[in-house]
């Protein structure tokens, strides 16, 4: 996706990054001045006092109190000045603004859960996996933590990296003026799929943001049409298949407005609206691409979105090292070093579940991906 702009030092559409740049210009300018002064003095001295220009020994003296005082005071004043600037920026960046929107970002091995604590719905709050939607031109107060190991929240375009630490909440404010999709990464080595722990930040102008959050709050997953593949998928999703040991998806996944209330996997309420899969292993699953069957050359996994989703449901730990999702092809996988045996679903049953997942869509006007460069 576009929207990755690194101009000099950080994306200047973000007030956070602008503050950092303004603060950094002073040490940079002073460094250049001092470098020019010191190297100028050096070149002058070397040239002016070359041996072949002086027969006599240079003037001999010892100690110069005034010069020594100046040489101590100048750096002290510079360092004090710079620390005042740094403290001022720290205070500005860490002062909570009254109008900030709260978002919680919880890191898990190996995905992110984003939730909106002020948008209450039955059984919780509005939550999405791996795609963080935020408004533009408004500060967003991110609180990050982790439920397993230390992760790192880092979406450079909106400003500010923080460690996501189990049992700790770190809150700071990010922002951007530009409506775009930005890349986020886990910035702390956290296990086998650290590099597959990516997310998208989708910044929407206020009217579109409002449309999204209102629709997300009012959202109830659509009831599948009787007799459709999606309906069969819904039954498997919520009940599993006891005869072959296939655990119900709803044991781990939540779908807003249904009985599926699992908390240990990503919230799938808006799965059909998302354009990433497997915490950013796939990107840009546009409706057109869903119909394609050929290879996506830029995809880390070399097949179409439909085939990717099928493979994902069938044997997630095979396509993503360290994934804690069970296998549904009967194969073995490990959770915390313990070997588990997956349940068994047929390819047709897996496609039914995929069909159900693709119906989980926000209304068109709330589709946060629509038309964003
Ligand atoms: Cu989570 Cu690296």
Report on the structure:
The protein is of the alpha+beta class and 373 residues long. Helix 1 (15-48) runs antiparallel to helix 2, helix 4 (229-239) packs across helix 7 (347-358) and helix 6 (305-319) crosses helix 7 (347-358). The protein is built from 7 helices and 12 strands. The longest helix is centred in the N-terminal third of the chain and has 34 residues, at 15-48. The radius of gyration is 28 Å and the shape is elongated. Mean pLDDT is 90; it is low at 1-5. The chain folds into 3 domains: 15-51 and 63-94, Helix Hairpins, CATH 1.10.287.90; 101-218, Cupredoxins -  blue copper proteins (Immunoglobulin-like); 229-366, Sandwich (Immunoglobulin-like). The strands form 3 sheets. It has a 5-stranded mixed sheet with strand order 3-2-1-5-8, covered by helices on one side. It has a 5-stranded mixed sheet with strand order 4-10-9-6-7. Dinuclear copper ion (CUA) is lined by residues 107, 110, 151, 186, 188-190, 194, 197. The site of dinuclear copper ion has 9 residues, from loops.
| Annotated CATH architecture of the largest domain | Sandwich
Q: Stretches where pLDDT falls below 50 for ≥5 residues?
A: 1-5
Q: Fraction of residues in helices?
A: 25-40%
Give the N-to-C terminal Cα separation. 7 Å
The dominant shape is elongated
Q: Can you give the mean pLDDT?
A: 90
What ligands does this structure carry?
dinuclear copper ion
Q: According to CATH, what is the topology of the largest domain?
A: Immunoglobulin-like
Q: What series of H and E elements makes up the topology?
A: HHEEEEEEEEEEHHHHEEH
| Largest beta-sheet characterization | 5 strands, mixed
Q: Which structural category fits the helices and strands?
A: alpha+beta
CATH superfamily of the largest domain: Cupredoxins -  blue copper proteins
The overall number of domains is 3
Number of helices: 7
Record field, number of beta strands: 12
Beta-strand content estimate: 15-25%
Output the CATH class name of the largest domain. Mainly Beta
Kindly provide the radius of gyration, computed on alpha-carbon positions and rounded to a whole number of angstroms: 28 Å
Neighbour order of strands in the largest sheet: 3-2-1-5-8
């Amino acid at each position: 996706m576009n929207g990755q702009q690194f101009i000099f030092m950080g994306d200047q559409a973000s007030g956070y990054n602008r503050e950092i740049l303004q603060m950094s210009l002073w040490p940079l300018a002073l460094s250049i001045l001092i470098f020019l002064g010191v190297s100028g003095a050096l070149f002058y001295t070397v040239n002016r006092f070359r041996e072949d220009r002086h027969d006599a020994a240079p003037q001999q003296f010892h100690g110069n109190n005034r010069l020594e005082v100046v040489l101590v005071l100048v750096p002290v004043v510079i360092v004090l000045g710079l620390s005042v600037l740094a403290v001022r920026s720290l205070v500005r960046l860490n002062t909570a603004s009254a109008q900030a929107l709260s978002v919680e970002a919880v890191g898990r091995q190996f995905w992110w859960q984003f939730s909106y604590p002020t948008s209450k719905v039955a059984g919780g709050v509005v939550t999405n996996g791996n795609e963080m939607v935020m408004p533009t031109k408004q500060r967003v107060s991110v609180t990050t933590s982790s439920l397993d190991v230390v992760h790192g929240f880092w979406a450079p375009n909106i400003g500010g990296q923080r460690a996501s630490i189990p049992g700790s909440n770190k809150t700071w404010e990010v922002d951007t003026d530009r409506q775009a999709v930005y890349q986020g990464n886990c910035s702390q080595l956290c296990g086998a799929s650290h590099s597959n722990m990516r997310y998208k930040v989708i910044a929407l102008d206020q009217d579109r943001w409002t449309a999204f959050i209102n629709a997300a709050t009012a959202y109830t997953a659509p009831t599948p049409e009787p007799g459709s593949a999606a309906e069969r998928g819904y039954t498997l999703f919520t009940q599993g298949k006891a005869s072959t040991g296939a655990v119900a998806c709803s044991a781990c996944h939540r779908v807003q407005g249904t009985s599926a209330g699992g908390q240990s996997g990503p919230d799938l309420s808006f799965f059909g609206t998302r354009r990433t899969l497997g915490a950013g292993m796939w990107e840009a699953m546009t409706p057109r691409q869903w119909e394609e069957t050929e290879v996506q050359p830029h995809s880390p996994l070399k097949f179409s979105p439909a085939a990717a989703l099928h493979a994902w449901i069938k044997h997630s730990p095979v396509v993503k090292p360290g994934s804690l999702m069970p296998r549904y092809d009967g194969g073995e996988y490990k959770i915390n070093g313990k070997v588990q045996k997956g349940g068994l679903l047929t390819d047709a049953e897996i496609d039914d579940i995929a069909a159900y997942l693709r119906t989980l869509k926000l209304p068109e006007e709330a589709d946060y991906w629509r038309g964003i460069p």
